[in-house]
Amino acid sequence: MRRPGCGQAHRASSCTGRSWRTLVAMERLDGLMLAGNHVRLEPLTLAHVPALVAAINEDPASFRFSTAPETEAAMSAWVQDAVAAREAARELPFATYSCAQERIVGSTRFYELERWYSPAENPQCDRRPDACLIGYTWLGASAQRTACNTEAKLLMLSHAFEIWEVHRVAFRIDARNDRSRAAVERLGARFEGIRRAERLAADGTVRDSAFYSILAAEWPAIKKGLISRLAPPPGEPVAETAADS
């Protein structure tokens, strides 16, 4: 299948007046694709498994805090779980395509899509999310310290705040993952606190999780900062934002 070039994507900007079910159907069946100059986020499928396994095995030791597996069988199961969550309208998982490397280099997703209902509303009414998390983010070693994750965050946050019009986007990070926590703080997300014994970690231990969030009112300033990171002065590298999970 011919891939669209970076900067070309199916967007949902014309769907702001549609119901949530219609929006999800369009994003799932037509394939929501978010593209910039450096990265393209494609709907995650089993066809991506070989490339994902190759990417994660560039340096498996760097994924201590990631749930992404190293073997093809385990990666297939990981992708199948993500696709099932998409079919249930709970998540929107992506494969991350690097325009510079011309290949898949990692993955990321929207998850825990929240819908809030007032007492007067029918809870069966379908509509877009009011809040969500971004996570399950990882990049192969060759794509780390590049513009890939910075632009992916710009694309996803723009979609969440400007298309879905969410009130909050949050990040949940293993409290021990100092690199990712620092990167999310540089992004401009506000630290909310530590939830102790929050879930099982990738290494099988019970982990504490650090929570961060961005509110709709904070997004314009954060967006400006992300755009400036992607256009550094000549000779200076793009400022990286680390993976999160």
Name of the level-1 CATH class: Alpha Beta
Distance between the termini: 30 Å
According to CATH, the homologous superfamily is Gcn5-related N-acetyltransferase (GNAT)
Q: Return the domain count.
A: 1
The SS-based structural class is alpha+beta
**Taking strands numbered 1, 2, ... along the chain, how are they ordered across the largest sheet?**
1-2-3-4-5-6-8-7
- Let me know the average pLDDT: 85
Question: What global shape is seen?
Answer: globular
- Count the DSSP helices: 6
Q: Ranges with pLDDT <50 over ≥5 residues?
A: 9-26
Number of E strands: 8
Work out the radius of gyration.
17 Å
Strand content: 25-35%
CATH topology: Aminopeptidase
Please describe the biggest sheet, giving its number of strands, its sense, and whether it closes into a barrel.
8 strands, mixed
Helix content: 25-40%
* Helix and strand sequence: HEEHHEEEHEHEEH
